[in-house]
Each structure stands twice: as C-alpha cells, then as structure tokens.
Design goal:
This protein is an alpha/beta fold. 41% of the residues lie in helices and 18% in strands. It is built from 20 helices and 20 strands. Strands 4-3-2-13-10-9-8-5 form an 8-stranded parallel β-sheet.
C-alpha cells in the first residue's frame, strides 16, 4: 500500500549511536555498555529483517530493545532491502518494513544502495552488489528508491555503497547527488564506503566532497575496515570487526560542521570487544556532545511516477563476474573485479566451513576449485525461486563431483558431515545431584570407516599452511594435496567419534576406547562419579565433555 505523504518530515536529533544486530551473543552489547557507562551514546541503530515478527523471533536482544526503546531510541537499518537489482521489492515486504519502522518509532530508515538479495535469499555474508555509476545504474536505483519510499510514511535515507571494482564513469558522490536530485530523498554518508571508492579510484579521501549536497546528509556512519595493496591499486574492505582507520576519524571531524541537517552519527562497531568499543565511543563523544537539539523539518519530495526497470545496468552479468561464473574480463575494471571475487570467495568459504569444513577443503580448497562451485548450476539455483541455502547447494554440487570423480575417501567425508546435524537432534540425559552426564554440546557418532587420521590431518595442514603464509606472504594451497592422500587410505571401522559444537560449527575428535565407552554410557543415562574410573572422569572434565548435576 502507499501512504498519503505529509507536507514535511520532522526528524528528531538522535546524536551518537552504536550499531547492533540485537544478539545477546554479539559484542559489544549496547545496553550493557550503557548501564556501565551512562551517556556514552544516545541511541542504538540495529540491523534486522524487514518483518517485525521475524526480528522478534530471531533477535535475542529484541525484548530488551523493545522494553527500553523510549529510554534509548532506535534507528532501524534493515537488511534484505534492494535499492538496485533485477526485481523490485514485493509490496508485502515493504508493508512489513513500514509496520516495523512505525512500531519501533524509527524516524527514518537507511540502507546501502545495492542489490542485497534474490527473492529473500541474501548473498553470502550480506555482500551486496554495487550498481554501476552511470546513467543505466542511476535509472534503476531511482526506480527502486521511489518504489520503496512510496510504501513508507517516513523518509528513506540513501547510503553510498561500498566499492571495490570501478564501474561507470561517475564519482560515487556524483552518483549519489544525482540519485538525491532525482528522488528528493535524504542522504546517509558512510565514510568507510567513501574511502573504499577513493582508494579503488586512486583519489584523495576528500575528493568529490566539494559540490556534494552535504546539506542533505542526515546521518553519518563510521566503521572499521582493512586496506590492502595490489600492484598500483589499493582496496578498502568494509569489515566492521576491524579497527577504525585514523583517516576516517579525521574525515568525520571535518564533516560534522559541514552537514547542517545532520541528525545522527553511528559507530558501526560490530564485533569490537567492549573495552575497544568504549575507547572509540569516548573519542566520538567528543565530536558529538550529548544534549538535545531542535528537530529538523524536511520538505517531502513531490510524488512522481515510478519508472519501470529495464536491467540496462546488467546486474546478473555483475553477479556472474563477482562469483567467478564468468571471467573478470567480462565486465568493467578487471583488476577490481578480481579483488571483488577474492572477497566473495573468502566469504563463501567461511560460510561453507560452518557445515562442511572437511569436504570443502577436499573438493573446494583452492581458489580455482571454490570458483568451480560458485560458478556452478547448483550455486546459481540458490538464488532461484524456492532456492536452497549455500550449504545445501554445496552438498548437491559435492555429490555430483564425487559421482564424476569416484573418490571413496572424500565420499566418506561427505557422509560424515551429512550425519552430524542429526546427532544433535538426539537429546542427552541431564545429570541429577551427584551425577555426571554428557555435556549439552557434545554427541557421539559412528561410521563404518575410520577417518580419524583425516580429521587430524585437516587441522595440522591448516595450521602449517597458515603459519608459513605469515612468513612467505602466500598461502601455498598446493599443500592441500596431503589431505587427498590421507583421504584415500582410511582405516576400516567402525569408528566412534566425538562431535562438539564450536563457534557455529562442529569440532570432531577421536578418543581412547575407555573414554569412548564412558561417554557412550552417558549418552544413554547419567551416572554417579563413584561408578566410573576417576581417571576417565578427570580426562572427560579436562576436555569439557561432561557436566555435573
């Protein structure tokens, strides 16, 4: 549905904010920081799905945010919101966005101008695709932005996207200025994203700011990232877990007085330990002093027709090049595209290693073999109607590859990793007073073939190659051939192994027969310590495999 536009938007002063994904497990935890350091910042900007109900279901900090939202105001920074790409957001998704923003009283919503998802399936690691900075890209971003704004009762703030590959002949700030002029929507200036463009283009950090409509910027973002150099080119990878670059602190200090409509400065400190986030926030607090300021009135842009999408900017061609389904030379800026591919492939590897660490090393351990997966029909189907997750796509791809290659050892590894999720569906008995039981995150499994040497080899080879890379500057992936050798000589089973949940993945280990037998008993029922060899109890406790009642 569309909303009757008011004559003006009234935007309150928000001040200094901290970003959050609203997970209890993430650091820094914003509400704990505020309780320990009152006045450290003024609001929380959180990222979450468009649907309020989905956010309530999956964000473990949502109840606290909801309870404290009048004490600690929020800005909603949605995910899965396409502002470029081959298809417009469905009306229902935008109705959900409006209901969500209205419920939490977010005075505006901001999002990076990019292609984030295909029919709800996000690109791995939320690595969106940046539009080309040319007329075709502008036309399609205008269509997306107007379409989204038509469903909102509050302003959509357009955020400049991160850049690795240079596509189009315009400067990113010229592109954003043109997008603002065509839509009338306010701007959100992300300083790290701007730095990424300037480095990739070989320009000074403040290039393009003269003449840019800084009076239309209502929010600034500052976050961490990593700068790397390749030949004559330099690249900034936006990574919120990294330290903030000194150049960005300097740029922020110079921009704050030049943005008369500024309402908020957000520190995107995702992943920073509390003591590190505290130091950054104290520094930012000096630039954005606490205290109320008068509200800002913005004229609502006149309603205009939403032009149709044409796909003249060829988003799927950039997808194919970004995931190495097409050569980097098939699109503009070959060197930048290779850098983009490297980042995307690294994220895909990280995602796959949560479910398939051994199979991934054996079948997609090198850049070439990983690109064979991302360039496959199975990966592409992830982004089709009713698509599967990247992990499910990898399993299908791996099964096809193993049918073609007939590697029995690798097939056993795939079978092992397909078995693991079902192990954790089994409940383990809780110990009573005076008893010991299996730890909640530990299970036993069994295979007809012994893969203990391969499990060990995967850890040993990773450690060896990583250590050498720090000295040589190169990760010598040819060393992974050792794993193929080991996978071809498994011992006959049965093999009982220990599976333990670790950091979003599963760690596999072997154990002596006596310890395995003890843990097997605990999988069936808890026992008193007096019933068991104290040395087994001590070993199991030392390894974190058991719990006391």
């Amino acid at each position: 549905m569309t909303h009757a536009a008011p004559e003006a938007w009234t935007l309150p002063w928000r001040g200094l904010g901290l970003s959050s994904n609203l997970s209890v497990a993430d650091v820094p935890q914003p509400y704990r920081m505020l309780d320990e350091s009152p006045g450290l910042f003024d609001y929380v900007e959180y990222s979450a799905p468009l649907s309020l109900e989905a956010s309530k279901a999956h964000a473990s900090l949502f109840p606290e945010m909801w309870r404290r939202r009048h004490e600690v105001p929020v800005l909603f920074h949605p995910v899965h919101l396409n502002l470029w790409g081959p298809a417009l957001e469905p009306a229902q998704a935008l109705m959900d966005l409006e209901a969500h923003a209205r419920a939490v009283e977010s005075p505006w919503v901001g999002n990076d101008v990019g292609w984030w998802h295909v029919e709800g399936q996000p690109f791995p690691g939320y690595l969106y695709f940046t539009p080309p900075f040319n007329e075709a890209g502008l036309e399609e971003c205008v269509t997306h932005a107007l379409h989204v704004q038509r469903h909102l009762s509050r302003p959509l703030a357009l955020e400049n996207p991160a850049v690795l590959a240079r596509r189009g002949h315009w400067h990113v700030l010229d592109f954003m200025a043109k997008l603002h002029a065509r839509t009338g929507l306010p701007l959100l200036l992300d300083l790290g994203h701007l730095f990424s463009h300037q480095l990739s283009a070989g320009l000074p950090l403040e290039s393009g700011l003269d003449g840019f409509p800084l009076d239309q910027v209502i929010e600034l973002h500052i976050a961490g990232g990593v700068v790397t150099h390749r030949g004559a080119r330099s690249f900034y990878v936006d990574d919120h877990t990294q330290p903030v670059r000194e150049e960005l602190f300097t740029l922020l200090a110079s921009l704050i007085p030049r943005c008369p409509s500024l309402r908020a400065v957000t520190f995107e400190g995702d992943g920073h330990p509390p003591e590190v986030a505290l130091a950054s926030l104290r520094r930012l607090r000096k630039l954005v002093p606490a205290g109320a300021r008068p509200p800002l009135t913005l004229r609502v842009p006149e309603a205009v027709d939403v032009p149709p999408l044409t796909e003249g900017s060829q988003p799927w061609a950039l997808f194919d090049a970004g995931y190495a389904a097409a050569p980097a030379s098939s699109v503009e800026d070959e060197a930048g595209t290779v850098a983009d591919q490297d980042f995307r492939l690294a994220v895909v590897a990280e995602v796959l290693d949560r479910e398939w660490p051994l199979t991934r090393l054996l079948l997609a351990g090198t850049r070439e073999s990983l690109a064979a997966f991302t360039g496959s029909k199975e990966f592409r189907k992830t982004f089709a109607a009713g698509g599967r997750s990247p992990g499910q796509a990898f399993a299908s791809w791996a099964m096809r590859r193993l049918r073609e290659q007939k590697e029995e050892g690798a097939s056993a590894v795939l079978t092992l990793e397909m078995l693991l999720p079902s192990l954790f569906m089994r409940r383990v008995p809780a110990p009573g007073p005076g008893q010991v039981g299996l730890a909640e995150d530990v299970r036993l499994g069994s295979l007809p073939v012994d893969l203990s040497e391969l499990v060990y080899a995967a850890r040993a080879v990773r450690r060896h190659l990583t250590a050498r890379a720090w000295a040589s500057g190169a990760l010598e992936l040819s060393g992974l051939e050792t794993l193929l050798q080991v996978s071809r000589r498994p011992e006959p089973g049965p093999w009982t192994f220990i599976a333990r949940r670790r950091s979003g993945g599963t760690e596999l280990t072997s154990a002596s027969g006596g310890l395995v037998g003890f843990l097997g008993k605990l999988a069936a029922q808890a026992v008193t310590e007096a019933e068991v060899d104290p040395l087994l109890v001590a070993e199991a406790r030392e390894r974190g495999l058991i719990r006391r009642g």
